[in-house]
Specification:
Elements: E1 7-8, E2 16-25, E3 28-37, E4 45-50, H1 60-68, E5 72-77, H2 101-113, E6 118-124, H3 126-137, E7 146-150, H4 160-176, E8 181-182, H5 189-194, E9 216-217, H6 218-233, E10 241-246, H7 268-275, E11 283-288, H8 300-317
């Protein structure tokens, strides 16, 4: 593997980034970005975090919690997201979720080369879906030891009839016409509840994580639908998995304080129902009172509960 060169990341505060050069795809050149923050003390423990849809890695407080618990922290900005967007690419564009396996493989090999022997795969929302599928496809891998999913995107948050009829139909179209733009998406209320320019407490790049998501394409629907079908059939893992989610979903028709008390993006009943189908040697599914969609961006009491459960679970269930 070619020696990687790290430079200061946009987050500063001892965060560094390096570019992973990937194989060209149907749009041309492809890269991903690996961000890291080291612990002050030498450790063999590390975590690799994958963000969700309409997202990128910016959660410094989460990274610092891992560092405080003696983990080297790594995060991927996946191809066509955040730091990795190239000028010729459609943002978020993917035709099969397995495309992301290339950068996960590359990142895990870098992490292993940097003397980390106990690695946790962590993923939020679509990132949680991706790492679950990745772990199912990479059984017997020695590059990671366990999975932690934060509100994983295991199903579309749509009425049953749309999930049963409309999504499969659009997915079928997406196989032949992947660049066809599809209307829809989630409301901007979630973004308004997060960003400090509006009602939230967090600062991040609104070009990389806009309140109203960039357009999606039929190929993306096809990729997500295929992944969801795999989850619903019951994937099998050979590593422990912790799945956390809010204790409720909220769907206000206008912005309100209720946004701070539940998942405004996914239906938590879908998360739980599909998580129960996953086979693993150790699996825990835990709801967090007043957790938001990205649990680590919840209000302080809820996110402290997330970290308490997470690190206690790792201590009890994973050889670290």
């Amino acid at each position: 593997m070619k020696e990687l060169v790290y430079k200061e990341d946009v987050l500063k505060d001892n965060f560094e980034q390096t570019t992973l050069i990937l194989n060209d795809d149907y749009e041309g050149k492809v890269t991903a970005t690996l961000v890291r923050k080291k612990t002050e003390e030498r450790s063999s423990k590390a975590v690799l975090y994958l963000h969700g849809f309409n997202d990128y890695f910016f959660q410094k407080s989460m990274a610092n919690e891992f560092v405080k618990n003696e983990f080297y922290f790594y995060a991927l900005d996946l191809r066509k997201y955040g730091r990795s967007i190239l000028s010729h690419q459609k943002i978020n564009n993917v035709r099969d979720l397995e495309e992301y396996f290339e950068e996960i493989d590359a990142a895990l090999k870098v992490i292993q080369k940097e003397q980390n022997t106990h690695v946790i795969l962590a993923g939020h929302s679509t990132g949680g879906l991706i790492i679950t599928l990745y772990a199912a496809a990479r059984k017997k891998s020695n590059l990671f030891s366990a999975l932690y999913c934060n509100s994983p995107f295991y199903d579309m948050n749509l009425p049953h009839y749309l999930k049963k009829y409309a999504i499969p139909m659009v997915a079928k179209v997406g196989e032949k016409f992947p660049d066809l733009r599809i209307s829809g998406g989630f409301s901007e209320f979630y973004g308004l509840s997060l960003h400090q320019a509006h009602f939230g407490e967090w600062d991040y790049n609104l070009d990389w994580k806009p309140n109203k998501a960039n357009p999606i394409h039929a190929g993306w629907i096809a990729a997500i639908h295929k992944g969801h079908c795999q989850i619903k059939k019951g994937v099998e893992l050979d590593k422990p998995i912790l799945i956390m989610h809010s204790d409720k979903s909220v769907f206000p028709s206008e912005w309100s304080e209720e946004m701070f008390t539940g998942d405004a993006i996914l239906n938590i009943h879908d998360i739980v129902a599909n998580a129960q189908k996953i086979k693993a040697p150790q699996k825990n599914i835990i709801g967090i009172e007043n957790g938001m969609h990205d649990l680590v961006l919840s209000q302080q009491k809820a996110r402290e509960k997330v970290y308490s459960i997470l690190f206690d679970w790792l201590d009890k269930n994973v050889m670290l």
